[in-house]
Write a structure and sequence with these properties.
The structure holds two protein chains of two kinds. Chain A is built from eleven helices and 14 strands. Chain A is α/β, with parallel strands linked by helices. In chain B, about 75% of the residues lie in helices and about 0% in strands. The chains are: A alpha/beta, B mainly alpha.
Amino acid sequence: MPVLSATNLRKSYGELKVVAGVDISIEKGECFGLLGPNGAGKTTTLRLLLGLIEPDAGEIQMLGEPVPKHARRARLRVGVVPQMDNLDPDFTVHENFMTYGRYFGLRDAEIAARIPALLDFAGLANRADAKIQALSGGMKRRLTLARALVNDPDLIFLDEPTTGLDPQARHLMWQGLRRLLSQGKTIILTTHFMEEAERLCDRLTIMDRGHVIATGSPRELIAQHIEPSVMELYGEHVAGWGEQFGNELCERHEVVGETLFCYSRDGEALTQNLKAQPHLRYLHRPANLEDVFLKLTGRDLRD
Amino acid sequence: MAHYFHLPQLSLRFIPVWRRNYLVWRKLAIPSMLGNLADPMLYMLGLGFGLGSLLPDVAGVPYITFLAAGTIAYSTMNSATFEVLYSGFSRMHVQKTWDAIMNTPMTLDDVMLGELTWAASKSLLSGIAILLIIWVMGLQASFWMTLWIIPVVILIGFCFAGMGLVMNAISPSYDFFLYYFTLVITPMVLLCGVFYPVSQLPAWLQNVSSVLPLTHAIDLVRPLMLGVTPSQAWLHVLVMLAYGAVGFYLALGLTRRRLLS
């Protein structure tokens, strides 16, 4: 039985269908990614799954409980890391854990016994009495994650867990998430970073305008939607090159500003051609999840 | 729309929310109490002695004694009001503390009941502090009668916390609260018998005053200060309960629409 499942989930605000028939099924121990441009309906989907808002239609089962009917009971075994840190700024690190644990009905002694391991997990072992304002952005983020573990949840929701973090802090966060997965926890996360999704997620769903437009493992999605080899060409001459050679040498190509993306199965003829064009700068790389994402959701800005 | 206004689901789960607010308050208890009390104390002592020396007895007692009862009522009203407006808004809108709590097995109903009871507790704390000064100054007619003021200030806190939470629910920013103070709180301070008996007002203003909750608060507190049993005590209690309960119900529906849609 899946840890979390939703079928035909729908939520509209007036005319706007924010979530328009979403199906999700997450197995135990999986890291599941929810990707999509701004306004795709990711955060609304998370709020529906948590039972914070009522769907217009659809069924949700979380940890064996129907949601939103028994969302409270389900949330006893769920941890949530929100998009914006909402730690209690008036409390120390230790007090944040104590206060948050009480919301789960845990007794003080029980919470206090868990705190050392949580501090250790967050890399804040010596900072129990630190004020929140004294922590760096990365520390706050890790503390928010550790706080979400105070009830030893089976399922963890993360809404853009590494947005705004520097690379060091991001890698630390990923390490933490991998440790949780190795302990058998189930994770659902939203992210804008394809690299993050590719590294962490066993499976992911790409949403756009309230619809699921693709689901699968990162590898499957790349194989299914994108030619394996990508050549990026830069400079003012790329458009001319595209007109001359694009159809011949690429299975698919597109020009974005002064960059040309050439997707192909065999880069050999292409490489030969480019060696003879010293005025073009180029980069050859394997196809990645970002290519899939941009192909499926388009390159237009979303606000 | 209608489904946001179902009845509150009240339970003891609110206690951790109350406790969270109490623990934050405890860190700043002394400056917070001084800040809350300096203003009403200065009014009571300054006007009580200064203006009082120019006045004959008011309602049969020295002016400062008369004013002390009004001071208890309006300053406990202010404690609850400030708590749910400014502090509550910080927790709901700025710090997103409510969001954090609602990601746990708590619901908005639990959070708001926690806020309501905490605001009433703030009124109780202010009320006791002012009573201590009144007792030290010996302004009361009967010490034992003034003990009844303690449950009354909790009721005052409940009443104005419920009303204030409605403002919290619809406010886009802190600035919005100024309307509530200008249009609701300040008129009550001036029309409900804090500084002079309501009977001094023209009849039409007396009618306005008679429906305002602070009038009913003062109709309970002042007789208790003067050592007599309030007349129509249950009426006053019911009016304040009604303001608080209707306010809380509306506030909960409006806040559900604000946060859970």
